[in-house]
Amino acid sequence: MNASDLLVVENLKKSYKVRDKTGRRMLIKAVDGVSLAVLRGETLGLVGESGCGKSTFGRTILRLTEPDSGRIIYDGADITRADMRPYRRRMQIVFQDPYGSLDPRSRVYNIVEEGLRANFPKYSADRLREIVMELLESVGLEASHAYRYPHEFSGGQQQRIGIARAIAVEPEFIVCDEPVSALDVSYQAQIISLLKRLQDTLSLTYLFISHDLSVVRYISDRIGVMYLGKLIELGTSEEVTLYPAHQYTKALLHAVPAADPRAGRAKVYKLTDDIEDLSIPEKGCRYCRLCEKAAPVCFEEEPILREVAPGHSCACHIL
Amino acid sequence: MNGKVLRSDRAGGIWKDALRRFCANRIAVISLAVFLLICLSCALAPWLTKYSYTAINVHNTLAKPSAEHWLGTDNLGRDILTRTLYGGRMTLRIAFASTVTALIIGSVIGLAAGYFGGRFDFLISPVMDIVASIPVILLALVFEAALGWGRGNFMYAIAIAAIPQFARLVHVCAASVMGSEYIQAARALGVGPFGIISRHIIHNVAPALIVRFTGALAESMLTCTVLGYLSIGINPPTPEWGNIIYHARNYIRLAPHLMIIPCAAISLTGISVSLAGDGLRDALDPRGELPAARGLTAGFLSLFKRRGAAN
Amino acid sequence: MDKDSMSDILLDVRELDVSFDTHTGKLHAVNKISYAVREGEVMGLVGESGSGKTVSSYSILGLLKPPAVINGGRVLYKGRDILGLSNKEAAAIRGREISMIFQNPMSCFDPVFTIGSQMTETVLANDKTASKAEAAARSIDMLREVSIRNPGQLMRRYSYELSGGMLQRVMIAMALLCKPKLLIADEPTTALDVTIQAAIIQILKKLQKQHNMAMLYITHNFGIVAEICDRVSVMCGGYIVEQGSTDDIFYSSAHPYTQLLMKMVPRMDTPLSEPLPYIEGLPSDPTALGEGCVFCTRCPYSRDICREKKPPEVSLAPGHTASCWLRADNASAESGRPSV
Known about the structure:
heterotrimer, A: alpha/beta, Rossmann fold, 2 domains, eight-stranded mixed beta sheet, four-stranded antiparallel beta sheet, 10 helices, globular, C: alpha/beta, 12 strands
């Protein structure tokens, strides 16, 4: 544990019991032994396809879902099983679905005020009103928006409301769970710059979850890549995007459209096809079935995360 | 495309908005007024008529409506208006009492099942299914037999029979609210279970519940009269819409108004409460069009004006 | 490059005008837009949400429902106006001639029937002579074309058992079953992961070439436009503000809106220190559109004339037009282009 670490996660595991088509019970290992540390004041990007466990990871470290095993250490205190009440104010979340994460029957004012009321019960009504209006302004909304309902706003504005709600309680750490994936490019850019600005003024630490590396690289200091419940690569944004080590990271990088008609796509990577493909292989590397460079060892032994360059580690046998 | 409706940016809760929307719905307001008028006149029956509902007058049986007896008299010379009002008093009292009881018990059960889910849900749902499958008439017979005939004990039966629909409704609504991300957000903000229930769940469940309540009220009123007609309910001479109709059926040729009047009362009550419920449902949807703010009285008066072309 | 002969124009939308009747008045969603799709060509329709791109495509297939009203204009398919067609005639064109894929494939499948039965049903509905076995065989072939490895097994599956990416591929297969001449793709990859998006675009590109099928590709992402489109129409607030070949739009775009929209696409090849540009403000309220340019409230170059008068459409190169006062002034004297 380092003094600069705000959040340390050790070997976190979370699985869900589901029934398959035939009614058989099976265990889906959403997060399967992830360890990482989030430094104070940084943005750690977490990238992966849907179903890789990145959202579950984000919610588990906030204890919105309970972890099966592993340790979560926040600001030096073990919160894996602790009473979360003192920590709730300090750790917040912004969701992917801007509309679904706002109560359709609450006015914007009440949505933003809710956290304040829960955490600062001593504030007077006037004080609350003042704070809410300030918050709305700081996320780029107008005071007149306070008494409208969420459905009256565009996706980008709804996301701003969600952000205002999260920063209302003066948190230190925010999990941004795909906050721009459901938005148009124009809103995407607006929200990313808003999050960056807030980070600077409020000295926030972000865990920024997304499936799109091109979005993540604009906001992250470091990037972690997840595949089927495992962290397979972790490094600074520059390292990961310029010198990706894992074949899967390379595939993710190439999936981003070049936005240049003359550039053309260098290569199309293989695609996970069926539900069966998303099951975790019994042994070996999780990516071995789609990996182009898979060697025999990849089908036998699961690689562990090891350093490939200073501050850049990767879980791959062939590098 | 988002058809943006401009709203006045005035503060005011969801309930205030709902009231404004409700007042703009002419049919709903009239229905509610009719329903309230019926309820009020039934409640005030002892002060509205000078007759007793048991006062027999053998010299004036099956009389046509007159200044003395506005709606005529029945086969025993009793004032029909009086008996209809007193009958409604009984029927509506039973309907209200049973529906409110069912609403409270059902909501608590549903809320618990929806909020806690899991094992509690597993226990509650089959029980509710079993209760829902028992015919209300059978239940009423059992209660009457066990607790004594003709004393309105069958109202427990009506209440019990109405519990599952409330429980299921609240359960489904609460479960869907619990699964939404704004509950996750509230939990992340440190809002406790009481806050989540009182703010989010009740706000989101209440509209559906209110609408269901009006429906259930009409239903239990009908059940009550059906039971009365089958002589399971309130026994004569105490009037109740069901038993009034039962005794009027012998005179349907001779004096059809004996039957028509209570039937009309039942229909009018049922229709008005249902229409008012529909209006409530529309009014409680925040996505509905919000009419311009204006005083309640002005809004009420505008119902009777011709709707302007500018609207 | 410039094949302006009328003969190979497959779909010709002329002055199409659509509005919504709302409580607060008429909301103009599409303002007299015109564009053409040639045979075998991919036309991109690009714009933010609310720019009217989806509405305009829905009107082609007659899928608009009240309160939407088509105020005027014509949609010529192979020279025949298809706007005024009866339901029966429109149904004959839908599927067989023009097909469509949507953003949310889940809502396009019936959860009660297997994928296979829905696909064979589509074949049989459009081809009365086909037998059931033939229809199934054709469905399986088509599924194989969208890179599904085990089509036989997939035919027995239900829509809710499949992931979004799989379902989108199945929808593409279903749309192409009757070999349509024109495919309208309404943001088919917006709801998907980037990896799946890349694969879907590859599949669409391959099939488009193979079947020489024209495509109207609706998206808000210029990254995708670069990958797949031959020509582009950029929409803003119900107007087409710029139109041209993909190269024209990417390398010599004339409208500030196009330039900004393009710059906002997150890319991998810009330096990390460079922040992502964005348009300040919100799309103007379509109900309150004034006399000026639709983009004037957000445009960094807006001048007085932009707020007062609608800009004229200026031809910049063969097939490249833009509606902007910046270009209108110096269209004759070709000075430097405004850059963002």
